[in-house]
Amino acid sequence: MSARGEYRVRLEVFEGPLDLLLYLIRKNEVDIYDIPIEEITRQYMEYLDLMRMLDLNIAGEFLVMAATLMVIKSRMLLPPEERDEDEEEEDPRWELVRQLLEYKKFKEAAGYLEQREAQQENVFTPEEPGTLPPPDPSLSLAGVNIFDLITVFNKALKRLPREDLREVFGETFTVADKLEELVQLTAKRRRLSLSSLFDRMRSRVEMVCTFLALLELMRVKQVRAIQERPFGEILIEGVA
Amino acid sequence: MREDVMEAADAPARPDLKAIVGALLLAHGRALTAERIREALIRAAEASGQDPPHFSTAQIAEAVSEVRSALEAAAVGIEVVEVAHGWRMQTRGDCGRWVRALLVKAERPRLSRPALETLAIIAYRQPCTRAEIEAVRGVSVDHVLRSLLEMELIRIAGRSRLPGRPLFFATTPKFLEHFGLRSLEELPAAAELRRRDSEADGWHPPAPGEKVEAQERKAEDEQ
Question: Could you give the 3-state DSSP secondary structure of residue B157?
């Protein structure tokens, strides 16, 4: 944090495009075997834009997937008889579906490992625990993923009257100030709901600063997010 | 077996195998295999100029199970569990919250989702290359692999014969210990998630004694 209060955050997002797609499929409660490509593509692009707006460091694979979705979408628009003269061509979505299904299985396996790990937290051995160095600098958000957070952020943004994002009306919000504010709000393990935090805000810049401050605090494990059921309310809680 | 243990009449009375094994488990802390126990028994005998004792794996397992039953019967909050192809002495899970309250820094770092997913892929598909993992996750796993290697949850298990001879990754015993797994067989849905048919192409098990050089490993890291 510089003296001028300019705090540049460029957070690494380690979730990939498949995570986002699975997230959107669950969120929209659509059938993975019959993905409404047009709608899912639209939402995918929306999240991509939001992540760019937040200046999150996202993998190039997100763009590759965007292109793939566009191709599938355009192929879906062709009436089946015009798609190909050869025998029955397979559904243009199939390759993607296959990939999603396989990934989903491994996500479930990862969930099993996560459970085992949590159980192991209850047992102690004579060897000093904590021989594991901290996993990685990514956002490990325990139960909440980056897309859940972006969803709340997006909802709050949409409530605001239209304004040009690139214009800053002499507003004095900074990420540094928001960091401090959030630390105070969540001090002594206090909890607050993420949506109510944004509800009070009237400016996009303020929301963006708050969101980035929140991600940073989560990254350094000063604050954690809790979501008791999928797509439920997200609470943030101070760790110290 | 008892006679075996009691044989050295001149030596100061030696505790029986159950006691020794119990002590080893407590002192070692981590998962201990029958092989390591046997080595310790042999080394101790050699150090005191005695003939190396002969204990079968079954005898050692029997001694461990005696320790386990003794602890269970005593109900003293300590247990012996089977983990990582061996045994580990640990506090009982139902006593966890008191231990945590005692040990201030007992909050262990948890693995992130990307790390868990990468581990899951390696666990089921091992040995596998980075490209195979990335094909499943749809995103680069470079940094995740590096930190998993550093944590010794995975290891480099040779090289593929595919072009560029990419490295193969596999899980370590520490992986099993970290998740309290007896063996890889304990992972659910193994048949479904294991390697699909011919993907093992290009894999050759490392020749006996072949170790991947640390240098090679470093070079790959820097790529």
Answer: strand
Q: Looking at the complex, does the CB of residue A99 fall below 8 Å from at least one CB of chain B?
A: yes
Among A105, A138, A171, give the residue marking a domain's end: A138
Supply the pLDDT for residue A37.
92
- Give yes or no: residues B86 and B122 share one domain: no
B184 neighbourhood in chain A, CB within 8 Å: none
In a mutational test of the A interface, the residue from B25, B90, B113 whose CB has the highest number of chain A CBs within 10 Å is B113
- Whole domain around residue B30: which residue ranges? 2-105
- For residues B50 and B137, membership in a common domain is answered with no
Name the band, by pLDDT with cuts 50, 70 and 90, for residue B193.
confident
Residue A1 within any structural domain of the chain: no
**Each residue's pLDDT tens digit, B151-186:** 889 999 988 888 888 999 999 999 999 999 999 988
Task: Work out the minimum CA distance from B2 to partner chain A, whole angstroms.
Answer: 29
Q: 3-state DSSP call for residue A154?
A: helix
- Substitution target in A106, A112, A138, A146 with the highest count of B β-carbons within 10 Å is A106
CA dist B217 and A80 (Å) reads: 51
> Is residue A78 classed exposed, middle or buried when 0-12, 13-18 and 19+ CB atoms within 10 A define those classes?
exposed
Which residue of chain B has the CA closest to A138? B112
